[in-house]
Amino acid sequence: LPGLHIFAIAFALEVSVGKTNTVTALNNSNVLLPCTFTTCIGFQDLVFTWYFNSTELIYHGKIKNKGTEPTRIWHNPRVEFVGSTTKKDNNISIVLNSVEFSDAGKYTCHVKNPKEKNAQHNATIFLTVVHKMVETDNTLTLIIVGVVGGLIGLLILFMLIKRVVLFIIKKTQDGKKECLVSSSGNDNTENGLAGSKAEQKAPPKA
């Protein structure tokens, strides 16, 4: 059926920004905006673009094929490409240098693959810029100890710490098998730098 064929092609190209589509950055810091793409049938002369608030182009690149690294067509001077397409993942992540409060907003990673009849897909990250990072773990610990009290509270705290340590060890081992953005994301989850393995659909445009 022709309709079914078109439907399959439309969903062959996927773009992901990781486990979460929200990133929090400290004012005047450099922030990673992760993005990877997958395609069922490969790619040829693939074009990718990054947009700020849907309209402002901040990075434009092209990838000839799987065996070549992306070439830059145009970029905002504050944007640095940090991805790679010759490794495990098709990584087209960027770093935004010296973020300011005016940089807060929506960042869209858009990919177009001519080999899939120009199939297009995108994913979106929402960036928040703050004066200082707020520690949330200490607050949670105080609440647990305060409510439960005494030895029970300390026991729960010990169990939480043990689980976190085991989780970090597991993620560190997993990270060795994954690409740049995945390992960066795992190491920086608390700062809002998402990994790249899980898929995240972009919200529909208004």
List keywords for this structure.
single chain; 206 residues; alpha+beta; Immunoglobulin-like; six-stranded mixed beta sheet; globular; disordered N terminus; sodium channel regulator activity; Ig_sub; SCN4B protein
SSE topology:
Elements: H1 2-10, E1 13-16, E2 22-26, E3 31-33, E4 36-39, E5 46-52, E6 56-63, E7 71-75, E8 79-81, E9 90-91, E10 94-96, E11 105-113, E12 119-130, H2 137-148, H3 150-175, H4 180-187
Parallel strand pairs: 2-12
Antiparallel strand pairs: 1-4, 3-10, 4-9, 5-6, 5-11, 6-7, 8-10, 11-12
Helix pairs in contact: 2-3, 3-4
Subcellular location: Membrane
Keywords: Disulfide bond, Glycoprotein, Immunoglobulin domain, Membrane, Signal, Transmembrane, Transmembrane helix
Transmembrane segments: 140-161
CATH arch. level architecture of the domain at 22-130: Sandwich
Which CATH class of the domain at 22-130 is shown? Mainly Beta
Global structural class: alpha+beta
Q: How would you state the average pLDDT, rounded?
A: 76
**Secondary-structure element order, as H and E?**
HEEEEEEEEEEEEHHH
Q: What is the helix content? A: 25-40%
What is the CATH T-level topology of the domain at 22-130? Immunoglobulin-like
Rg calc: 20 Å
CATH homologous superfamily grouping of the domain at 22-130:
Immunoglobulins
Q: Order of strands across the widest beta sheet?
A: 2-12-11-5-6-7
Number of strands: 12
Query: What share of the residues does DSSP label as strand, in percent?
Result: 25-35%
**Poorly predicted parts:** 1-10, 175-201
**The biggest beta sheet, please?**
6 strands, mixed
| C-alpha end-to-end distance | 31 Å
